Amino acid sequence: MTAHYQTHGEVAVITLDNPPMNGMGLSTRRAAVQALQRAQDDPAVRAIVIAGAGKVFSSGADIKEFGSPKAYQEPNLLGLIRACEASPKPVLAAMHGVCMGGGLELALGCHYRIAAPGTRMALPEVKLGLIPGAGGTQRLPRALGVEPALNLIVSGEPVASELLAQLPGQKLFDRIAASNDTLLDEALALAREVAQRHADGTPLPRVRDLPCQHPQGEAYFQFARNMAKGMAPRYPAPLKCIDAVELATHKPFEDGLALEREMFVNLMHTPESMALRHVFAAERAASKIADVPADTPTRPIRSVAVIGAGTMGGGIAMNFLNAGIPVVLLEQQQAALDRGLAIIHKNYQAQVSKGKLKQDKLDQRLALLRSTLSYADLADADLVIEAVFEDMGVKEQVFKQLDAVMKPGAILASNTSTLDLNRIAGFTRRPQDVVGLHFFSPANVMKLLEVVRGAQTAPDVLATVMALGKTIKKTCVVSGVCDGFIGNRMLEQYVRQAGFLLDEGCTPQQVDRALEQFGFAMGPFRVGDLAGNDIGWAIRKRRYVEKPEVRYSKTADLLCELGRFGQKTGAGWYDYAPGKRDPIPSPLVQQLIEQNRQQIGVQPRAISDEEIVQRMVFALVNEGAHLLQEGIAAKAGDIDMVYLTGYGFPVWRGGPMHYADQFGLFNVVQAMRRFARNPHDDASFWQPAPLIERLLAEGRTFTG
Ligand code: NAI
């Protein structure tokens, strides 16, 4: 059973018990309705308490039922709430830990509410592109006041119970308990008290009967709309939250409830909500590996060593210091070590000056950092992460040394972005302990961590680094071994298309603008200037030798031959005023583009933004499909998480693979066939990956 029934004298206690968050799934709703009925039928019961087992009251919807018909099957949440509200015996909610979404809507349907201090109260539906759909927008403004209720509903952010309880005139809480431990006893006492109070037939208080007004409603809601449009212009849900709360101020309760439902159902079908719900599920699924069970034992990671204090090493070290894990940082020379340490100090100091970090916390973190020039000082680390030059010879030296000094059972990780992890593992006598941890730059900021699984990486090593990834607040996605792993292998095709678009008639600013209007944080040429165009140049030079048959636009090479590596050299695809980062279209770059067009004999043509976006995004999709087929990526949702957290893909589009599903795989294939007929593009690349053809034939999608 996912809800239990117990009596304490004249009070029945219904305990929601659906771990881990007491989600209001079908079985929980059924059990709660049955328990409620049992309490009604028992003449000895005079009041009913609804509580949550474990650490929380309820987080609302059961994510296991997400999107399945079960979520709406009777008794649905609205039915359960109605049953509580209509109960002739007083029903009390006793909340602790977390009371969110449907959990809070249920509590609002009860006659009385008591909460432990520190209970996180929220209606987070807006984060999934929705509005609360079980009365939250109609009851919360009545219980809490219009302004704080709207704030909670539009932000979706939690607020602690004791803070909300201080709001003047609030009716959300009848009482705040002394602590989690005393909550049940205090709830039972309150239940007895109210049973007595209503023994003479005094009507039970219902939130729906409370007045709901705002003295300057029209102006207030207008302000709120302006704010929401400014802050979240791409999302429809915040405006609908405002509409729904406004309804509560001037419509009878039942009418408001019906309209809220209608808005909720309509939002469920918006592309934005479908994308956000996909991302929510994909993020959780990414942390699971099919052949590594959740109960796989992990190795304790009490200390970490980082080798190389360059661009990546320092940022990688900061992740662990931030999580309270001691780090020893190794370099080959004192000067390099000093440089790396200075950057770590500078980054932390910047956080202190911005008020994001307190000085005492900084001191605590820095006290965990040691530095060394000697491998002997790493021997006891539980995990070592190598971030030295991207050169197989250097990696070989480093891993042979690590193999010699590290204690048995230590995990040996490489941050390589392109090299063959299996070869690196082969430099040791313990390939089972070797794994790739591909951080993104800046490593202390970027959410994405590609966990690269070598042919021999042991399951407990994978389980350990996935858990550790969570500790350092990364989104971990597992990738198999290939050149570029998931993210950069796809990026290469995306950037290749950007080059062809220049050859055929675009300017860098047109391509960037089209992608930014699509929703990317930055277009490909601005990204190139930020990251350094020399990185791609080095990769292309390697490709010209390894894969001479693959064609690239030569404009980028002309650019790099002039030393225009981007912001770091003061010029790249754009010009930059000294000390500024604003891109200025460059006449010189335009000349390079035209020079290259003449060399390859292309007459420029006008290219629509639609073609730009489709070629760039479907290049990601086709390469993503190959990665799935090869088993490098396990799930389409993993690819989406890589692009959302590491490459600035717009969240409301759900990632490239979800976007392709929404666009329709038939339409995607049609577009690819069209691109394949373009003589200046790469016809062989645009052959749809066999996986896409198969899904299409079977009427399936990547993410469905
Ligand atoms: P970097 O050149 O900034 O830093 C490398 C550091 O390693 C230097 O400080 C160097 O003195 C040190 N080093 C070289 N050989 C060493 C040895 N034998 N023992 C100890 N220290 C040694 O390079 P960066 O950019 O930090 O890259 C490091 C690794 O991270 C590479 O494998 C790279 O492919 C990868 N990576 C780089 C990203 C980036 O955006 N820069 C992103 C993701 C991965």
TrEMBL record:
Q: Which residues form the signal peptide?
A: none
- Catalytic activity entry: a (3S)-3-hydroxyacyl-CoA + NAD(+) = a 3-oxoacyl-CoA + NADH + H(+)
Gene3D superfamilies noted in UniProt: 1.10.1040.50, 2-enoyl-CoA Hydratase, Chain A, domain 1, NAD(P)-binding Rossmann-like Domain
Q: Which UniProt keywords apply?
A: Fatty acid metabolism, Isomerase, Lipid degradation, Lipid metabolism, Lyase, Multifunctional enzyme, NAD, Oxidoreductase, Peroxisome
Name the InterPro entries on file.
3-OHacyl-CoA_DH_NAD-bd, 3HC_DH_C, 6-PGluconate_DH-like_C_sf, ClpP/crotonase-like_dom_sf, Enoyl-CoA_hyd/isom_CS, Enoyl-CoA_hydra/iso, NAD(P)-bd_dom_sf
> Looking at the Swiss-Prot or TrEMBL record, what is one Pfam family this protein matches?
3HCDH_N
User: Where does this protein reside within or beyond the cell?
Assistant: Peroxisome
In the record, what terms sit under GO molecular function? (3S)-3-hydroxyacyl-CoA dehydrogenase (NAD+) activity; enoyl-CoA hydratase activity; isomerase activity; NAD+ binding
Pathway the protein acts in: Lipid metabolism; fatty acid beta-oxidation
| Tree of life domain | Bacteria
Q: Where is the 3-hydroxyacyl-CoA dehydrogenase NAD binding domain?
A: 303-479
Domain 3-hydroxyacyl-CoA dehydrogenase C-terminal positions: 484-576, 612-700
Biological process GO terms, please?
fatty acid beta-oxidation
Give TM segment ranges. Answer: none
Q: Which family does it belong to?
A: In the N-terminal section; belongs to the enoyl-CoA hydratase/isomerase family.
Know the name of this protein?
3-hydroxyacyl-CoA dehydrogenase
List the source organism.
Answer: Serpentinimonas raichei
